[in-house]
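Re-run with default settings, no changes from the original entry. Doing this only to confirm the output is reproducible before filing.
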Amino acid sequence: MGQCGTKTAGLCAAALALAGCLSDGGGDAESVTRLRTPQTTATPTHADKINAESTIIQSLVARRSVLPDGSPYAHVATAVLAANARTAESELRAAQLRARAASKNWLPQIGPQISLTSLSSVITNLVVEQVIFDNGRKKGEREFAVADVEVAAVALASDTNTRVRTGLDLYISAAEARERFALGERTFKDMSHFEWVMNERVQGGVSDGSDLHILRQKLGEIRARQSASSETASTAIAELNAMAIGDLGSLRGMPELPVNADLAQPLSVTQAEAEKIRAIAAAKIDRAGQLPGLSAGGTVGEDSTFGLKLDGLLGLGTGDRLKAIEATKEAAGRSVAQANETANRTLRKLEGMIAAKERQTGEAAALTVQARRNLDVFQSQYDAGQRQVMDVVGVYETFARQQDAEVALKYEAIRLRIEMAELLGVLVDGTAI
């Protein structure tokens, strides 16, 4: 047993020496230095090292939320994130563990070898194997694992921003429904006055009952729209509270959202870049699998052996397979260009739509003022006996429709700004994610 232990130690030492001396087989100089030099201070974890060295992760961390501090938007974001299940975070942790495991793939592999030679005899050996030359396969595996972490990090950022946008959309829907309900209250009150006037005219024999029936129908339609607005607001708040911590029904206010297309790189482009790096790493692994590799190893126990082993065979189709692998690298690069083009088109479209909606909102506000002036003129003419009640009612309906159109345009512009912020990934601070 003592001689077997000595052989095992010697074989492991030889394998470690090969791992430290051979760079293409997997180990790098920094990894070997960590083994040789004792650490006197606390060292960062492997995940911290990836985060510090990854340009993609650093760009995600550097993003800042466009939601004003202390605003209702910020309260909604905080509440919905506090109740987030964060499935994407679990996937990121799994990717980090895989990357940490892959970072040690240059070390020798050691394991038992058991052979059942007969019903009464079992031979057990200890197998040690160290890759000497693998055409960059081990390095590619490490690069793939790191790129997998970056892809998972982008997915987490995208998932978090999408959740915040969902919460904000519900809050905006509730706010719009409340404003429509308040507008309906004023309209109903004013139309009720016209209905009272017409009722008095009918009772006095001045007018027939047809106009009175029309006014009462209009009042019923206004009440129906009010009920729908109230239900929309209640449903939106109930759904928002279901995905958040606490009751958000008391929040009020729609602050300005300062967002523009040049604020940050779209998350879709960042994801394409991370997937490109991962695809290139996978291509390196595939390429290494098509070429012969050299490894050293042996067994310790009965019939101990030690030697070199050449793995892999070349065939007539190897050249074409290698060309196909190189083509996948080019395709990965083009996917980034395509993602960048698509994102830019979407951003320019949103910019144009936001500008149009905000311009239309201003025009609608001016038309509302004009409709109010027309109503005042008709009201004065009615008081002077120059207009009928239904004439004033028609002008008032135009005024009410114009108010409703102004409200709709205002909230459409707000939703478009929220959509742009989600596309850019700036609804949540990167450090908070």
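The chain has eleven helices and four strands. The CA atoms of residues 300 and 394 lie 100 Å apart.
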